[in-house]
Design a protein that fits this description.
Elements lengths: L2 H13 L1 E9 L5 H14 L3 E7 L2 E9 H12 L10 E5 L5 H6 L5 E5 L22 E3 L1 H10 L14 E5 L3 H4 L2 E3 L5 E3 L9 H7 L8 E5 L4 H11 L8 E4 L2 H8 L6 E6 L6 E3 L48 H5 L7 E4 L2 E4 L28 E6 L6 H7 L1 H6 L4 E6 L3 E3 L1 E3 L2 H4 L29 E3 L15 E3 L16 H15 L4 E5 L1 H15 L3 H4 L6 E5 L4 H7 L13 E6 L10 H9 L6 E6 L11 H10 L3
Amino acid sequence: MDPNINSQEEQEDDDQYGVLLYYKYTQIPDLDDLFNFYDSNCNSLSLLGRVRLSPLGVNVTVGGKLRALKKHIAAVESNSLFEGTDFKLAACGRPSNDKVAEECGFTSLSIRIVKELVTLSCNPLIKSPEISHAGKHLSAAEFHSVLQKAGQLDKESKEHNRELVLLDARNLYETRIGKFHPPNVETLDPGIRQYSDLPSWIDDNSDQLQGKSVLMYCTGGIRCEMASAYIRSKGAGFENVFQLYGGIQRYLEQFPDGGFFRGKNFVFDHRISVGSSDANILGACLLCGTSFDDYSSRLRCTYCRMLVLVCDSCQRKGSVYVCELCQNHHKGVGLSSIENGGISSLPSVETVSSDTKLSCQVPCRQATGPPRKLRILCLHGFRQNASSFKGRTASLAKKLKSIAELVFVDAPYELAFIYQPPSALRELPHNCTSPPTSPQQGPPLPPPSEHCKKKYAWLVAPDFQEKTERGNWEMVDGPFDPLQYQQQTEGFEQSLAYIKTVFAQDGPFDGVLGFSQGAAMAAAVAFAQQTQTIPSKTAEMQFRFVILCSGFGIKLLKQEFHEERMIKKCHCPSLHIFGNDHGKDRQIATQESRELASLFDDGCSTVIEHDSGHIIPTRPPYIDQIKDFLSRFL
């Protein structure tokens, strides 16, 4: 070959940008060693993007110069662990939209060790299926042939006439703009908000899959691996599951005219979507219904933060959008429109039972003008009260005064005052937690209760007894137990009914902020709304977000909501604020707060880890992140 041609190709690779996607399920013997390899290799080649490592394999999406990407592939292929890996390399333009590039993780390199490459279920009680049970791989050509023959999946099998169904394993915002449309084949689009909702959909619709040959597809193939294994794990009648190897991306490379695929393939990098030579547009504007499939504006539902399609003509600064899923779940209550500088409430949506079908409504939208302040209900921590919590959050209220009004209430359970024996408190000053001892011998004499402010709780221990006049004080014979919050799992029903009354008398509220035990309560209320296990008690509590500070509550959630109810993540937009591993929070363990955050949808949750103690930090950059979260709801 002419060396000048090689030199020219290398020059083009130096100048041209590209994106590389690949995954590999395999046992990783040394995760730290593999982490070091990716850290060194990607940084030396100036690659940006996401690398996820788990004990069962890797999932990689990186971008950079084509020549650098090819060097990376060569380095990975030299490791026998990656034998047979399907590297999807595509030339493309450099990221031109900084907002999109940042959101897709293409402005930095992120390498993380995770438990699972893709999270099929957010419920820690649900065990993921064995990846070795995944469905049979079909190449793009084989997949196309099956769709052409519609039902002749395995000519050698006695069940070659088995009915064929085509299952899309992607999310709703992806299927809006592109999907397979083969003739004479039943197609199933779950219409899910996120991948972890898929198992629940499969469980609810198993009759559409059992006894049939199930053909699955997704963007690049990795989601079908786990999802197909989940279907096959259901036993008899679910054995015949097949998946498109390499996903839609490999199919469009094989069939550049689109084949049986219509529209565009949504991708999770700065390209946003990739189409075929077929110019037909499948998507439509959420507001006016005009054909539209461009997600570059990154507009999102104000409730669940899922991407929505809004055409250029309908986009307005300060607009509020409600996706079709939230509309179907009766969201859109309490939004306001601003006309001629004045605020007028839009008609509220009447609450109906979950099995009632609602017609799709046009999302509420705000015109330009000064928005009203957000009203946030604040739930204090254990053994606090509204007054003390208001004092502790004075700095936060001051810095948010232009956008939010904080409303404080006492919890329903009044607690007895506590004190310790004099030997432990002889040198301590006189206050309501440590009363002075009597000059005479004998137990300490507590001060009159009227000198002390009452203390309250949202959740109590199983052996809790209501305070009585004779029981204003309780003596404790040991130091403070930092793990006592783990035992406070009773009282949710009464506290929930109490909060409902607060909403009815002092509402409406845009959001709920909870601190420590108040955060556990706020999280449980958010789950109660979504699961609708007690609809009569949650119907009057409509709010748009939760802020969980030093939160915990996994034990409470498991107790109040059965396993099958916790398969889905909570879609309520959430902000989680807690101390990091190097912080000084001696009350709530960092891992407790992280586990609580993991039960909320990643697509609509924000996590702020700070280096302070058991507080809500208000210094930069934390206050700026809090304001940024709240600004989404103005």
